[in-house]
Design a protein that fits this description.
The chain contains 10 helices and no strands. By secondary structure, the protein is mainly α. It has 2 domains: 89 residues, Alpha Horseshoe (Serine Threonine Protein Phosphatase 5, Tetratricopeptide repeat), CATH 1.25.40.10; 60 residues, Tetratricopeptide repeat domain (Serine Threonine Protein Phosphatase 5, Tetratricopeptide repeat).
Length: 169
């Protein structure tokens, strides 16, 4: 009887313990809400908890990298986006996001490389064409910029029209 009571108590405590534990998805969702509410430091904390629970959880790295980008912690953002690429090189999102960081760092050649990888993996990503066009324009490669602005425009990016008119004849 004593063993039965101990076993019941153990099961009860285990159920309570596991019910109280949050999953990486729970932390991700909390981090995502904080990111949307511009609580970037809070988002970083939650995304970090998600990553600690599951070190290959790419969504956590993408979210935390985005929060780092917003607070201009570019080295940390690059590290997180690069980690996603090392885990899943077929995901276009980290290349796109890392391109945003490289634009901020004025490393336009690396931004172009990452946006190029993005459009290879997702040829319907009009934003990637648009941003690559901007990077090309910033290094005075207007022919390539025009081609990308045209593609972005065809994919429904409204801002591409004004850039196309500005740079292309």
């Amino acid at each position: 009887m004593k063993n039965f009571i101990i076993n019941i108590a153990f099961v009860f405590l285990a159920v309570i313990f596991y019910a109280c534990m949050a999953s990486e998805a729970t932390y991700y969702e909390s981090g995502y809400r904080k990111l949307q509410n511009k609580d970037y430091n809070g988002a970083i904390i939650d995304f970090t908890k998600a990553i600690q629970m599951s070190p290959y959880y790419t969504e956590g790295y993408l979210g935390r990298g985005s929060a780092y980008l917003y607070i201009k912690s570019y080295d940390n953002a690059l590290s997180d986006f690069s980690m996603v690429i090392s885990i899943d090189p077929s995901d276009p999102r980290p290349y796109y996001n890392r391109g945003l960081v490289y634009i901020e760092l004025k490393d336009y050649d690396k931004a172009i490389d990452d946006y190029s990888k993005t459009v290879i993996l997702n040829p319907k990503d009009g934003e990637a064409f648009y941003n690559r066009g901007l990077a090309f324009a910033l290094i005075n490669n207007f022919e390539a910029a025009c081609s990308d602005f045209k593609s972005a425009r065809e994919l429904g990016i409204k801002e591409a029209e004004s850039m196309f008119l500005q740079y292309c004849k």
